[in-house]
Design a protein that fits this description.
The chain has one domain. The protein contains two helices and eight strands, in the order αββββββββα. By secondary structure, the protein is an alpha/beta fold. It is extended.
């Protein structure tokens, strides 16, 4: 870089190439994810049941998002709706032959750091299983990357202030 704090022509080209590479990678990963969603939809043709869960925050979760159990795709999100208490009801269509204990929980996870959101079901231990129209009571909301970064920065600032006070 030049001493006068301006970018040279070569540095500008390198920056543009870097941005283009990042955009191409992001588009490619979104394309792969959309293909995966289509594969899940094709696999899910057959006997399905609908189950639901209420969340406080579903950022990035959409109709068609994958539903997984133990890392295996078993269904997809079929509907989302805002309730009167400002929570979000998420309806999931899952394979009928997958037995989900009534005391199971669900979380909204992200595939990778910036991937798409999906629902992961954590099976409970009960011997009674959810039927069509069943409701999962135990939920964990979507984690937003920006919130996570803000939390990390806040913790770092707090620790720095404590060290400065100790001196």
């Amino acid at each position: 870089m030049n001493n006068d704090k301006t970018f040279s022509r070569r540095e500008k080209k390198e920056l543009i190439v870097g941005i283009v590479v990042i955009l191409v990678c992001a588009i490619y990963f979104m394309y792969l994810n959309s293909r995966k969603l289509e594969e899940v939809k094709q696999q899910n043709i057959g006997s399905m049941i609908s189950i639901s869960a209420d969340f406080n925050k579903t950022d990035g979760l959409f109709v068609g998002s994958v539903v997984r159990l133990a890392g295996v795709d078993i269904g997809s999100v079929s509907d989302t709706s805002l309730l009167d208490d400002f929570t979000v009801n998420v309806v999931m269509d899952v394979k009928e032959d997958v037995l989900i204990p009534e005391d199971s929980g669900v979380t909204i996870n992200t595939a990778g750091l910036f991937g798409s959101k999906y629902i992961e079901i954590q099976p409970g231990g009960m011997d009674e299983y959810l039927e069509d129209g069943g409701v999962i009571e135990y939920t964990q909301d979507s984690m937003i990357v920006q919130d996570l970064i803000d939390r990390i920065i806040s913790i770092g600032k707090s620790k720095k202030e404590k060290r400065n006070q100790a001196k």
